[in-house]
Amino acid sequence: MSKAAVKISSDLLSNPLCEQDPQFLKSMTALDTAMRRMDAFNQEKVNQIQKTVIEPLKKFSSVFPSLNMAVKRREQTLQDYKRLQSKVEKYEEKEKTGPTMVKLHQAREELRPVREDFEAKNKQLLEEMPKFYHSRIDYFQPSFEALIRAQVAYFTEMHKIFGELTEQIDQPGLTDEQRERDNEARLSELKALSIVADD
Amino acid sequence: MEPIYCTVLPGSPDELGVPPEADKTKHKQSLAIEELLSTERGYLNMIQLCAVDIRNRLKQKQLPDFDLEGLFANIDDVIDVSSKLLYQLELMDTENPQYLQALSDTFLSMRSELENTYKEYCASYSNILILEARYREREELDKAIQETITSTAPHTNATNLSFFLVMPVQRIARYQLLLQTILKNTEPSHPAYRSLQATVDSTVALNSNINEYKRLKEVADKYNKPENLTLMDKIYRINTHSIAKKTARLSQMLKHEAGFLPKTEDKEFDALEEYFLALERGVADLQDNVSTFVKHFEEFLSRRPHECELDIETEVAFRNYKELSAILHKHIYPKYMHRLKSLVLQPLCSLQELFACPQNMIRKRLHKLLDFEKIEEKRRETGSITYEEQEAANTYQAINTLLLTEMPKFNGMATQLLIRAMETFIFIQRDFAADVNHIASGYLQHLPHNKLPDYTFWSWAEGMFLKEAKSLQQISQTFEAELNPHFILPLTPSSQRRLSELTKRYKSEQIYQASSDIKGGRDMDLSLSRGELVAVIQEMDTKGDKRRWLVEAGGNRGYVPASRINPYHPTGQTASPSPAIVDEASKRHSVVVVSPAIESPVLPSLQVFAAYDFSARSIHEVSLRAGELVTVLEHHDRQGNPQWTLVEVQGQKGYVPSNYLMVVPVPGISASSRKT
Prior knowledge:
The complex is a heterodimer of chains A (199) and B (676).
Chain A: H1 2-14, H2 17-20, H3 22-93, H4 98-167, H5 176-192
Helix pairs in contact in A: 1-3, 3-4
Chain B: H1 20-61, H2 68-72, H3 75-91, H4 99-109, H5 111-137, H6 139-152, H7 162-165, H8 167-184, H9 193-224, H10 231-237, H11 240-258, H12 267-302, H13 316-354, H14 356-382, H15 387-444, H16 454-480, H17 493-505, E1 511-514, E2 533-538, E3 548-553, E4 556-561, E5 565-567, H18 584-588, E6 606-610, E7 629-634, E8 644-649, E9 652-657, E10 661-665
Antiparallel strand pairs in B: 1-2, 1-5, 2-3, 3-4, 6-7, 6-10, 7-8, 8-9
Helix pairs in contact in B: 1-3, 1-6, 1-8, 3-5, 4-9, 5-9, 8-9, 9-15, 11-14, 12-13, 12-15, 13-15, 14-15
Main location (chain A): cytoplasm
Keywords (chain A): Coiled coil, Cytoplasm, Cytoskeleton
InterPro entries (chain A): AH/BAR_dom_sf, BAR_dom, BIN3/RVS161-like
């Protein structure tokens, strides 16, 4: 957007009209300078925002893949846990014969570590996730401040620069309707010329 | 005042001593003046009738497809001028000796008004005629018109509008005749004679200007519209005449380019053309660029991050930001866009459209110039040219004149518009900046760190984020930590044997168990099955990769992924602490590394079963069937080897491998499993 603005002034500056009319050249040079300065400020604003908003955002979201992986692993563990749990229950329901007892015992042995693992993972997630979610508030607070501040800084400059430019132009005090009517009047004058067809 | 003429007898001098001839002239002069005035009155009446009454009636009828404005052109202006003229002429009494002077002065002072108004009207008159003819072809329109005329002006016996509409055209020419009559009948010695003469001359000039203008306008209208012809149309236009014409032009042009003929240079025109083209380029570029700018801005507007739900309404900076953005988007940005579009983009677009026709005319001029050159050549050589040729020459000159007179005006006015567009852009920008600033500064006041100067603020913000980056990284690591349990998988006999082999040669810390099946992919990789025991020889491979460990498994050596093997702690040996391999994760999370806790041996409230089938291979051994209840007699063999247990089963005594036995808690008593 800023680049488009610079193009506005630079194209006009390069137009041969500038050679013909020194006043035109002067005005266009002033405008071009202004546009380029605004572009520089814009760049600065972008940099600031890059550092205080975009990159922090990226870093914050980079935690999510790990988080998702942990969730997935918990899920897997849960599956294992359920599987083994149902196996134990199955054996518990069967008749208490020797082999069954043995198998039951084995199954319980298998189950226990898995259960503990699951519970560990679960606990961890339950603790860490809310903390992480909560931390975003304080984390991002500077970002929002930065956004507002950057706006203020940029537009202050813009106001100053364009304010200087407008001082060099006469008639700054017209209202918008007056300007519109003025434009219409000039256009009609042009249309009244014979070489311009009237439609 | 006594009438001048009643006492005069033909041949006798009157009281003033003026000869009778003079009287006659004077009389004629007065008559002429009266005629001027009375005809003007009549004329004014008529056109007022037409313009006001008839037009209103027609307007009321609301006829479809009826161009009232085109039909009546600028007749209102004509009426104004005529009324003014009449008013001036009637100010003074016609008998007044000063009257002639006043008359001349009036005409001279109103000269330009007259010229401009009538010029327009006359130039539009042909269009009026065309329109009228077209409308009369349509029956219902024709009838409506007739009806209106007869109802409003029955005394005129008029049957069509042009009866009225032609009057201004006739009138302006009439002035000349009327004034000439007055002049004819005025003594050269009359004090006002010179003025009157000047007036007549000016009227003559006026009429010729009007005619010239009309002609030029006709030429302009003919040539200024760029024609959008299809290919078919162009083909239809080809006939011998047009081919001849174009060939002639082409040859002329080639002669120019080749240097045979000198090009007619018209520096003045060329300068104008050059400026025109530069201007056109400037306007086109500006219009393009501003449009692009507007487009980008609109795209920017379509993103509305402040509208997303972030669930942190309580936080002050966020709230401020959200409100600020909302206001900007709702009020300030649209206002800016609107101003930009209506005050800069719109006029630029309109301006750009206006360039097309003059450009076309310039092109046509060039063509006609080529024709003209040929004709002039012919005229020089033969001394005579045909009628068409003369016409063509006239056309060229008409176009040329027209362009030379009007282009400077066009260039000037268009440049003005261009400059004004840029100026408007500038203060729209300034106002926009002021608006945003005003609101944003307001919100800035609410922010916690608003008192900090800019530089300090940015360093603080960046510092905060760098710090946070570290803790974020830590959090990531938290989640990434492998929380693999180090649980023990029950050993199969083969594993048991493996274990004994390995423990002979390696320390117990080096014994690991595969937590899942491992398929070796590369050469030197080992394949393991779940639960298999290995001994770790080196905790990295030859390239230093710590994820591949060199292990031994039953005489084979190879690499396996470190993540798939876990330290093996058979219970009953030691309540060993977590092996050093366990990462910080476990330190952080008090995860119980699942080494089954050791409890003191439990006495016979446990029952011992055979876990697997076992076939005795010697007389000292006894066979077992899985699930059989056994009684343990001794926990070691005669040599004290704890790997053999003396049991009694089914009345038989003998040794069985210790790990084939299982201690099962009898329901009601909890105890950890224990391998004996």
